[in-house]
Amino acid sequence: MEKKKITEILKEKFPEKIKEISSRFGDETVAIERDFLRGLCVFLMKEPYAYSMLLDLTCVDYMGDDLRFEMVYHLFSISSNERVRIKVRLSDKDLNIQSLTPLWKNANWLEREVYDMFGVRFEGHPYLVRLFMYDGFEGHPLRKDYPLRKRQPIIPMRKKE
Amino acid sequence: MTFRIQKEAKKESMLINMGPSHPAMHGTIRIMLELDGEKVLNAELEVGYLHRGFEKTCEHKTYFNLLPYTDRLNYVSPLINNLGYVMTVEKLLGIEAPERAQFIRVIMSELSRISDHLTALAAMTMECGAFTAFLYYIQAREEIWRVIEQTTGARMTTSYIRIGGVRADLHPEIDPLLDKAIASTRQLLKDCHGLLDKNKIWLNRTRDVAVVNPEMAINYGFTGPCLRASGVSYDVRKAHPYCTYDQVRFEIPLGDNGDNFDRYMVRMKEMEQSLRIIEQSRKKVPLSAPTIIADGIEPVEAIRASRTKKAEAKIILSPNLEGSEKDVYSRLMAKEKKYTIPPKEDTYTNIEGLINHFKFFMKGHGIRPPKGDVYFSVEGGSGEVGYYIVSDGTDKPYRLHLRGPCFHIVAALEEMILGHYVADIIPTFGGLNMIGGELDR
Amino acid sequence: MSGGWFTTKLNYVIGWGRKFSLFHYPFITACCGMEYMSTACAHWDFDRFGCGLTTFSPRQADLIMVVGTISQKEAPVLKTIYEQMCEPKWVLAVGACTVSGGIYDNYAVVQGIDNIIPVDVYVPGCPPRPETFLDAIVKLQEKIQNQEQEFRWKRRK
Fold it and tell me: Is C27 left (phi over 0), alpha (psi -120 to 50) or beta?
């Protein structure tokens, strides 16, 4: 009997909360609403699915769309060697989402990086400050409307002889 | 800006800074410590001193042009990052490299992995005072870089692995150099096992220091040697085999405790396994490339002759860095014409080759993958190197994200050094193999 | 050069002493650090040029080798360390990123460290081969030999 894909299992269990599933290029993807994120992760962490590792957490800026930002989470299960991708769309005006720090500890730094680069706020994060950019940097560099070469030097540049 | 550690610190303890210009060859990280004498009560890390804007730059470069940027991420094993990026794009395009190219990719990957472990252990042992081991490791690394340089043209940042295959074939005289590199690595492993394994000073400094149990390792997202040192058997080469890793036999060494000594031992044993993979791949693929055709005509004559009529005679070019022979080109690059550069004979002597070449490099044309997003990962020197690419149908990626293994491992450092002494931070940090280019992108 | 035979000879001797006993501070950040490690070790040793003592305190160094990309966040750190060094001091900018920003022309990277501190010898390459690095040290030594020794810090700003 062929093993059921995790996206189909999720579609059966939570039909109204899952917006769409796909497996393009062989990657299992599931798109959900913002409020269901914590519940889905808790469900996936339990046996028998055991998605125990948060591989990656990132954000994509689709400038021009209504729901401009898309959060992308990659979970991985060591016991069954399977990955799943969770996508959540957020709008520019209400840019916050639940934090995953109570579930996985590396979510702490990953979410700080997304806050630094995109400006997404995470509710429940213990220490949401910038990670890569320095104190005094204005703006969020990876957004599409931030120009590539806009430099904000901390110390004044010296005049060359 | 007040840091968390400043708010949480007790009045009588000392707040001290390690870095950002740290002499321990790691360079660009700042560890803020709250100390009671020599014991660490609290720690906070500040990263981002090597943030070079890799992800934003990649949104402005074409898929082919951004290959040199991937070299400079994990700069001690550049060929593995190249490979990860190229295989992600190949997954998006749906093409596959030919078999000889895949074996060459595996050999180059494993040489890079050995070079990564050598550098990591060289830095770790030198900072603890074992200067002899440092010199031995770097000497073995020189031999390996000599092999890589002979085939790819550069010691470190090579950009050798291309979308669809590899840039050039192995050098015809690679055998003696590769033999010497393998022999010197084996000799080095024997020497350093003898110098360090039962050395009382080394054992005191690394045994039972910064123990990471398997649950904590998985919760933090560890992958690679640090996860295997804690006892969890997960290697991307075995779990999701790519290239020709399913055709070679090798083992995954595991550790028991998860302390610094296990991280050191796992890396030493992995180097031995990498040597096994290289020797097996060597036998499966004839290493000496076909020699240059003796009865052909010179390239200059061929170009001149092709102006009047179509060139028929064979042209003297070699399949490694100097040129590209059309017959063996199919063994090095994929068949799909849209995504690979045509061989040089075609580019210079007939019009179809010239048009293919031009359309590949012209802005707006070239590699234009279908819309969608994809994630692919390879086993790097520090763990699972993953690339997440979002494509919108144009010739530049819409978003490229690197899943750097060091990021998750260094995030755990704050918790790993609590309760230990300041001197324990040095081998701990060395054993994690933090590479600034991958951590900060 | 002003002065008679004695001051010329004194200049020469001081220059000879300074160039063959350089204490360097390696300010390593990125990929070029790997080539620095290669140059420092047994095969392409730079100890034979007198430059062998790696000091980890800027107060005891006379040469700072800036090796690797300098980001905007790291710039004040570099300036502080440069100002902590005592005169006479020299700066070696190793690698394309320190010379002009290298391949990174974006919001995060300083386009050449001569925007922050004055540089004596620029070493191009990405990363520069160890032979290039040694050539740069030899050129720096020529520069040290031929400069005016006593009055230099009064002129340099």
Answer: beta
Confidence of residue B440 (pLDDT cuts 50, 70, 90): confident
A24 DSSP β-pair partners: none
The DSSP symbol for C58 reads G
CATH code for the domain in which residue A61 is found: 3.30.460.80
A153 assigned to some structural domain: no
The percent of residues above 90 in pLDDT, for chain A, comes to 42
CB contact under 8 A, C73 and A158: no
- C5-146, which class in CATH? alpha beta
Who among A58, A83, A132 is closest to B440 (CB)? A132
* CA C68, C73, C77, C83 torsion-angle sign: positive
User: At B427, which helix (H) or strand (E)?
Assistant: helix B422-431
Res C2: pLDDT: 53
Taking contacts as CB-CB distances below 8 angstroms, the residues of chain A near C157 are none
Using a CB-CB cut-off of 8 Å, the residues of chain A touching B394 are none
- Whether the CB of A155 is below 8 Å from some CB of chain C: the reply is yes
CB contacts, 8 Å: B239 with chain A: 81
A134 and C CB contact within 8 Å: yes
User: What is the total count of domains within chain A?
Assistant: 1
Quick check: B97 and B389 in contact, CB under 8 A? no
Residue A150 lies in a domain: no
- B1 — contact with chain C (CB < 8 Å)? no
- Summarised one tens digit per residue, pLDDT across range B243-255 is 889 989 999 999 9
Predicted structure pTM score? 0.92
Chain B residues with beta carbon closer than 8 angstroms to that of C33: 25, 27
Each residue of B61-116: pLDDT tens digit? 999 989 999 989 999 999 999 999 999 999 999 888 888 888 999 999 999 999 99
Nearest CA in chain A to B409: A106
CA atoms of B160 and B111, how far apart (whole Å)? 13
Residue with tokens 């350089």: C22
